Amino acid sequence: MRIRRMSYSSLPSVFNDGGCVCAFLSPEGRIGKSMFVMYEAWAEKLQERMCGHMCGHMSKERTCQNYNSRHPRCRHCTEFSRTMETPDLPVEIITYILTFLHAPDRKEASLVSKSWYIASQDPQFQKNLTFKFPASSSSLDVIRGLARLPRCSLVITHLDTSHASREVLAQVGRHLGPRLESLSLPRSSVTESSLLGLLPRLTALRRLDLSGLDSLFMSGAFLSREDMRRQVQAALTHLEELDLSGLRYLSDVSFNRLTGCTPHLRHLSLAGCHIAFEFDPYRGCPVGPDSSALLSLRNLHRLLLQQVGTMQSLDLSRTSITPESLKALVKVEGLCLHELRLRGCKELTDQALVTLCRYQPALRTLDISACSELTNAAVLAVASGLKDLQHLYLSRDWRVTDKGLSELVMLKDLQTLDVSECVHISGTELAKSLTGPQAKAQLASLNFRNCSYIRDLAVFSLAQTLGPRLRELDLTSCPYLTDLSVSAISTYLPALAVLRLGWCKEITDWGLLGMEQPSKEHNPDKDLEDKGPSFTRTFGNMGFFQPPPLPFSEKPQQVTEEYLGTFRKQEGASLLALRSLQELDLTACSKLTDTSITQVLRYPDLQWLSLSMVTDITDESLVSVAQHCRSLRSLHLSHCPLLSDGGVASAAPFLRRLEHLHLAACPLITNRSLAALTQHCKRLQSLDISRCKAITMRAVEHLHSQLPFLDNVHCRFVGAADPTFMP
What we know:
Residues 83-128 form the F-box domain. The chain is built from 28 helices and 26 strands.
């Protein structure tokens, strides 16, 4: 059979409304300009077939974009009914089409028909799937349904000592035991007997997260029976990742019992654990072996010696590790770490980092954030010693300056650089070094959050240098950035997926639209015109001095319809150029209005958006965002006083994928908005309506009862509610 190539433009566009999907391939960048190889017989009827499939699942109130007013079905459906002999599109072709979609879009596509569902279950789409659900009787059917999958991962919340929790764990072991690759039980109160009844069944487990499960280790009897340890060891022999972070009662004895059952660990997290590195506070003497009260450095050192051949990642963040202790750990013979996290270890010094870089040169990820004693010397040691480093986190290392950063550009594999809250960083030296002949870094993520010395010139230079490689940029709380920075970002960073500009209060509509604000005409005669007495703080009405204008107090010139017409015709660098954007933060950019929000925020793949404290936006912006950003999963609109029930009611039908919504301190929001959310946003998991005084507690309780996935409702100061009430 002859092969035909079909361009993306001949396929219908996507309607991501959560109910029906008219097709899944959009000419708006969702698949680029790829060509699809399809058999001619199916290609000729593809659009009709797809539309026909859709309309068969539509309610009477819905129509597709090809609706014919003279007939209750669309043109393509009518044509399809006349050509029933057309063969079905093969599952292989549908599977190929689905490869161009993001996971949320594939999920919507699987609801179209049986063929599309079967295609969505292809093994290439079933990798690294994690399912999260609470420990309740309603989850039992979900667990039994997951048994058809070859592999899966679970996050089970709200586990306690109840019968329902015990039954959930028993069903997991019975139906998913040999299929479960990862298990996480965050902040639960699971009993020892329930967990030990489950672990021997998990023979395929690769990752186990017991963080915060103090109830397991409080008694000190966990895994104390020899026969139980043998069963657990036989099941967990392939375990590679163990997370024990935040455990207050972890001791040498319980740690040895558990790690003795996991002989091939690659990653170990002890973040936030109470570890005695050199001194036993209970005995007032150096730490002894096998303590039943605390975990010691001696014991951790012993584990590294035993598993030196496999251990590659270690997390000791928020512990009191000393420079001497760190040196002892990194000097373990044969140890080759690829990842080390020491966030918040405040006693570490530059010399300890020098030793670390000398003995662990293969590190690819290093997190030394909030290590307040570190200076440029530590950064220079990293730049000269860790040639394979890919991710470096220096957040809140207040003594690091631009001079230290300039050496990092020599790291050829460096992709992530986080210098947030480094108050002496201006970015100028980094930008200058990146243009130098020795620059090799290929940065894909850059974080300047709360670096108040950052100016437009640095952002412009960095954007011009990094270009399409940069995927994530955080400029939150850089207060001196203006529209020039937005223009540079729009022009030089087309591949950005994450952009955070929260609290950059000088950004205006002109910057988002990519237009230059007209300068005010200078009229000397008008400036000298007598305007009456001038008052100052100290000289009354003498008129000698005028008080200086307050910073950020001037309002930008308003964008008129004439300028909007120019914007629609131009091909300049507006924020609309960032077609791949998935996360956008414009929190507290108070000079933005409906004018730019309605024209620019049109991103089909946008999943996270914050317009909180953008006080001038109205329902017009909310409805426009909902119509053009239908993949939104998290939307923040707190402290937007002009938003009303009408906007929420009009936007909700387009936000069927929404999981998190923040509407705190929006005084015009009432029970009507909750009714709209109940009807259309069935996937809502968290809702913040604090300080919405027109909402009643009865409406909140009704919302909570109607939405099955709603776990968290913040409703402080709602109506006459008790501020501590949580449904």
